[in-house]
Amino acid sequence: MYAIATDIRLLKEAKKLSERYRFFYPDLTLWKRKTVDDQRIAATIETLLSPYFILTHDAIKPEKDGNVVEPAGSIVYYARDGSSPEEFIYLLDSLSRYQLVNSATQIRIRMAGTSRSGAFKNNFEKAKNKYCDEWGFQSDREAEIMAITIDAIQPGLHNYVPDEIGWDR
User: Fold this and answer.
1) How do residues 78-118 score in pLDDT, each as one tens digit?
2) Looking at the chain, which terminus has fewer C-beta neighbours within 10 angstroms, N or C?
3) C-alpha to C-alpha distance for 127 and 86, rounded to whole angstroms
4) Integer distance in angstroms from the first to the last C-alpha of the chain?
5) Neighbours of 90 (CB within 10 A)
6) Burial of 23 (0-12, 13-18, 19+ CB in 10 A)
């Protein structure tokens, strides 16, 4: 969790994530949420402990000219190892089912697990190709799937002196 919190802070500082973001909760089938979608929604413990969770964010525009620096989109924090294309196919299918994949927004997957396969990027590219082939996607829909990116986040290291903890008042 420390690594993810650090990554969010670094993305905000680098203007790669809007100050206005929220945790994404897909519509449930048995009951509906009582909060409005545009309110900032905190993460539940179930979300934080799940194999992946999603942040949605607004576009980032510079103050003067109004051009978009970073388009609106979603960041998926993925906590599995990425050792097979099949696990990414499941993830792509989930993102499609949540209707997050479209040409107007970007999706960035951030590998947040402590142990990840050295071939996770290769497996992700295989998964995108296989997913498009199996569903028969062409042109626009295929381009939307292929535009999804994946990167790893740096593991967070706590910066404290153990000897000083006991002396804190």
Assistant:
1) 999 999 999 999 999 999 999 999 988 999 999 998 889 99
2) C
3) 7
4) 26
5) 16
6) middle
